[in-house]
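Example record

Each entry pairs one chain with its bound ligand, flavin-adenine dinucleotide.
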Amino acid sequence: MDLALSADQRAVRSAVRQWVDDVVVPHALRNDREERFPQEALEGLRETGFVGMSIPEEYGGGGADPLTYCLFMEELSRGDANVRSIMSVHLGLVAGSVQRWGTDEQKQQWLPRMATGEVLGCFGLTEPDHGSNPADLRATAERRPGGGWRVSGRKVFITNGSIAQVALVMARTGGPGGKGVSAFLVPTGVPGFVANPLHGKLGLRSCDTAELVLDGVEVGPEALLGDEGDGLKVALSALDDGRMSIAASCTGIGQAALDTMVAYAGSREQFGKPIAGHQLVQEMLADSAVDVDASRLLTWAVADLKSRGETYSLAASKAKLFATEASIRVADKCIQVHGGYGYVDEYPAAKYLRDARVTTLYEGTTQVQKLLIGRALTGVNAF
Ligand SMILES: Cc1cc2nc3c(=O)[nH]c(=O)nc-3n(C[C@H](O)[C@H](O)[C@H](O)COP(=O)(O)OP(=O)(O)OC[C@H]3O[C@@H](n4cnc5c(N)ncnc54)[C@H](O)[C@@H]3O)c2cc1C
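Structure tokens for the complex follow.
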């Protein structure tokens, strides 16, 4: 594996980095404080074409390879993890699933408009009583005369839930367990589809999270993504990409926290010298730098496997497990280095910790990743 980025990868990273510094960073703290959706970022993502970063060029997207996609996610998160969340669900979980599982007609129907950002996606897997164990989910889709489907159920904690134009919804079409689940591309504006925004989150306060209620939503036969009974496979393959993206995101949060604490340690003086000159402060900086580098390398290893067409589920679990926990450690040290100033929202340190905190929960908790890795090592399913 060559760890040197190509000229194209460096160029994309530097363009995104500049755009993030100009458009995202200046609004991030205020948006967080006011729970205000980062509209300026979404508009900029559309204008620059970044909104279609990983969608194939034949559908009007940027055709980014997996490593470029990770660089994009890292940079977005360095500026504001909210913006990364919006894009990761749109591109990784929804557009990626259409690319992987869709028919030519479904790709033509959705991808060109997803590439321009006219259509944003959300991903509806979690239910009130089924989070870590989606195989038992209860939403249903009944076949209608003529071949369409009627979808009913409740989904909770759905990122982009009230702003998306299409929801990838997993619902039961057959018997119990994962094999009875199918995936549907549901336009969100249809009768019976309601999104209730959720407020009061600890972190990711400015991106949209909603409950979805589907009450007899009628969709045509073309809504079924993959074959009947493929729904859990659709969801789990999407989550492999999602975990890679979350690991990239945590690298970005960690890098932002590290940059912030290094700068602060150089300017804040105590005992007659910059606190960067105290050995125990340097220890916090050094431990954080290693956490960030290790997170980035694990993330790039996933992207490398994906680019070479190899399986990357296990690598994605390892990268997510490590990078999420590491970002929390780094963000926590960022607060410690700032002393009392880290505890107020005038500085970004507290936001880094609050935004990092959700990453050990969604798209498979830390415990779920450990069970997946343990199962791969031992062959024993401990779920
Ligand atoms: C901000 C945010 C955004 C989200 N976005 C989305 C989205 O876009 N789409 C979507 O579908 N979902 C989304 N989620 C939901 C998220 O994926 C779930 O919260 C997550 O899967 C955990 O499910 P749960 O909350 O029901 O927790 P539970 O599954 O009830 O878990 C509770 C605790 O029990 C532990 N646990 C559970 N089972 C086991 C086991 N077998 N062994 C050991 N420990 C176990 C868990 O690790 C956890 O610590 C989002 C959540 C949040 C907070």
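Residues 231-267 form the longest helix (37 residues).
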